[in-house]
Amino acid sequence: MHILIGLLSSLVTILWLLDRLGIDLGGLNPWAWRRRRHWRKKYTANPVFSIDSPMQTTALLVVATAKADGDMSAQEKQAIQAMFESTFQLSPKDASGLFLASSHLLGTGEEVRAQLKRVIDPSRDKFTDEQARSAVELLEQIAALGGGASELQRDFVGEARALLVRESPQPGAWQ
Q: Would residue 109 be called left, alpha or beta, if left means φ above 0 and alpha means ψ between -120 and 50 degrees?
């Protein structure tokens, strides 16, 4: 027993001396390490994956649909801003701001198209059935705007529809 007490006393003395010499021992604390790791993951993550507002998610998906097969035309930009004004009841200034924010967050759009489920997940539960159907309709409208939807746009809209629109069970069917 006296040997164990001696070892523990030596360990405490060494740790105290290291602290007095200015060596940071905070890395030994597992709770502080976990908190720092969680904060670092949240800070360095792509903000697209933390959007939890159905309106902002829909706006991002509309811009992603328009950019799916390349850059947007001026006609598509104007149509998107008009959609934002009419659908979301925004002023022209707010609609333009939402469009610019969505375009900036989207970037090239490759990450959003590759991980669409991860983009939609934070806001999926906040979508009502009507909002989800309206979002899919907006995506279909913007895809059809440039003379018909491309293959990439059809795939993107189909995947978004599968993630957003919840199929309601038939009356009398098992859930």
A: left
Q: What is the Cα–Cα distance from 43 to 119, expressed in whole angstroms?
A: 17
Q: Among 118-122, 143-147, 155-159, name the one with the lowest average pLDDT.
A: 143-147
pLDDT at 145: 84
- Which of 89, 95, 29, 25 lies closest to 59 in space, CA to CA? 95
Buried b (16+ CB within 10 A) or exposed e, 136-149: bebbbebbebbeeb
Which letter does DSSP use for residue 168 in this model?
Answer: P
Q: Determine the Cα–Cα distance for residues 26 and 29; give it in Å rounded to an integer.
A: 6
* Residue 157, token pair as written in the block: 């809209």
Global pTM value: 0.75
144 neighbors 100 (Cβ within 8 angstroms):
no
